[in-house]
């Protein structure tokens, strides 16, 4: 729940409303978002206050990846990027926390009554697959 707590605190501090505008978040944290034409599986990275994101992706995925990178920035400052396979446990935990942060920042925990997951995802500007489980049960 560390990701949710960090997102909730940031949301309160900046008085964010849905759909979340990430520009004030980026500005408040002194970060910069730049286009980076990644190849392979990598789609975003954050290094020294700069978030590189593959802008060829659909806008909902770009928003999600920027929020994910902000989560890493807030939760894992000083963490290292390891390519060594033996470090997979800490990477998995860090990735889970960054995903939790992005979900808490960009999506409400419970579905809006009468709104389909697809419509909610469009309204929130996120990939439908990233909506919390409560949104997609029974779909």
Describe the overall structure:
This protein has 139 residues and is mostly helical. The protein has a single domain (2-133), classed as Arc Repressor Mutant, subunit A (Orthogonal Bundle), CATH 1.10.10.2910. It has six helices and three strands. The chain has helices at residues 2-14, 22-29, 59-75, 88-106, 117-124, 133-136, and strands at 32-35, 44-47, 50-53. Strands 1-3-2 form a three-stranded mixed sheet, with helices on one face. Strand 2 and strand 3 (50-53) form a beta hairpin. Helix 3 (59-75) crosses helix 4 (88-106). The radius of gyration is 15 Å and the shape is globular. It starts with a helix and ends with a helix.
**Average pLDDT score:** 87
CATH fold field value:
Arc Repressor Mutant, subunit A
Q: What are the low-pLDDT stretches, counting only 5+ consecutive residues below 50?
A: none
Main beta sheet: strand number and arrangement?
3 strands, mixed
Helix content: 40-55%
Taken from the alpha-carbon principal axes, the silhouette is globular
Distance, first to last CA: 26 Å
Q: Describe the strand arrangement of the main beta sheet, using strand numbers.
A: 1-3-2
Counting DSSP E segments of at least 2 residues, the number of strands comes to 3
Q: How many distinct domains?
A: 1
Structural class, judged by helices and strands? mainly alpha
- Top-tier CATH class: Mainly Alpha
- CATH architecture heading: Orthogonal Bundle
| Count of alpha/pi helices | 6
List the helices and strands in order: HHEEEHHHH
CA radius of gyration is 15 Å
Strand content: 5-15%
